[in-house]
Specification:
The protein is of the alpha/beta class and about 325 residues long. It has 2 domains: about 5-110 and about 305-315, ATPase, nucleotide binding domain (Nucleotidyltransferase, domain 5); about 125-295, Hexokinase, domain 1 (3-Layer(aba) Sandwich), CATH 3.40.367. The protein contains 11 helices and 15 strands. The strands form 3 sheets. Strands 1, 2, 3, 4, 5 and 9 form a 6-stranded mixed β-sheet that branches. Helix 1 packs parallel to helix 2, helix 3 packs across helix 11 and helix 5 (about 195-205) packs across helix 7. It is globular and about 60 Å long.
Length: about 325
């Protein structure tokens, strides 16, 4: 008798979209992946119920969810989405007893070892090529976050973080002006106010403040590619500079000798401009530590579903 494979339900919940799939023996079944627009659903429970409604013949043994927000023991609230997630509610909705909820950057970190080389774009080749030390995964999408990844022969440990909410780095008078503009209302400008989808829109509005022009992040990137909007080019250049500075700071904090991995939709959108607008120069611009920062490699992960693999890898660990 052929044994029925064990299906794990995995979900990656961002601020804008949720991706849901089945995994068997730790491997995501690509044919099962479905993307849902969060605005069309009142809760994650509703998304999962809709996914399973079209896969009613599949028995699942566990659920692992990666969320873009701080994971708490009882209730998880997403940073950029008005959903409240509880393990008890999820367990009832999908009828499983084993439910785990992790941060989305933790899921990305757990996936790094399984990402094929063809899905990694090299941005900066470090002078130190090491199989020891940490990796660092940096997510830029609806929000911003980063997490160090520590591997051992027995396990992978991905340390949770909320570093998107640290202070925006200020290097010049122009930076200070932008920071003060972004802090209007809240009184505080974080890294996420620049390095995120809405960050692109806010930086554009600051650059175009005399004209009063505003555009969506999608429009900004389209206009930057066409080259017919000077504010779009200025916006992308500003975001690339800030990304380089922040990644340099994080490299000094975590010493990721096994590389820095940029993930997320905004990271991929900025990729064609990282070289043009001087990401590497900003990354290494740390005074007497500048030469030291050349040790670290930087990659862009060109796999939109890596977090699902990370979820699958954490089940049973």
């Amino acid at each position: 008798m052929t044994e029925t494979p064990t299906h794990i339900l995995v979900a990656d919940v961002g601020g804008t979209n949720s991706r849901v799939a089945f995994a068997i023996d730790g491997i995501v079944q690509n044919a099962s992946i479905k993307r849902f627009k969060n605005a069309d659903y009142p809760s994650l429970d509703a998304v999962l119920i809709e996914f399973l409604r079209h896969n009613s013949e599949v028995d699942i043994s566990a659920l692992c969810v990666a969320v873009a927000g701080m994971v708490l023991p009882d209730v998880t609230e997403l940073t950029n989405l008005n959903w409240r997630i509880t393990k008890d509610s999820l367990a009832k909705s999908v009828n499983v007893s084993s439910v785990s909820v992790i941060n989305d950057l933790q899921a990305q970190g757990h996936a790094l070892s399984d990402i094929p080389a063809k899905n990694l774009k090299s941005i900066m080749r470090g002078t130190t090529q090491s199989t020891d030390g940490a990796k660092l995964v940096v997510g830029i999408g609806t929000g911003f976050n980063a997490a160090p990844v520590h591997n051992s022969a027995q396990s992978t440990i991905v340390v949770p973080s909320e570093c998107g909410h640290i202070s925006l780095p200020v290097y010049s008078e122009q930076d200070l002006n932008m920071r003060d503009h972004l802090a209007t209302g809240s009184g505080f400008a974080s890294v996420e106010e620049v390095l995120s989808g809405r960050g692109l829109e806010q930086v554009y509005a600051w650059h175009a403040r005399e004209d009063g022009s505003r555009k969506t992040s999608h429009q900004i990137m389209q206009d930057c590619a066409r080259g017919d909007d000077k504010y779009a080019r200025m916006t992308v250049k500003t975001c690339v500079h800030i990304l380089g500075r922040v990644c340099g700071d994080l490299a000094l904090t975590h010493l990721p000798y096994q590389g820095i991995y940029l993930v997320g939709g905004v990271a991929r959108a900025l990729t064609p401009y990282l070289d043009t607008f001087g990401f590497n120069d900003q990354f290494t611009s740390k005074g007497r530590m500048s030469e030291f920062l050349k040790a670290f490699s930087v990659f862009v992960v060109e796999d939109d579903y890596a977090a699902l693999t990370g979820c699958a890898n954490t089940v049973g660990t």
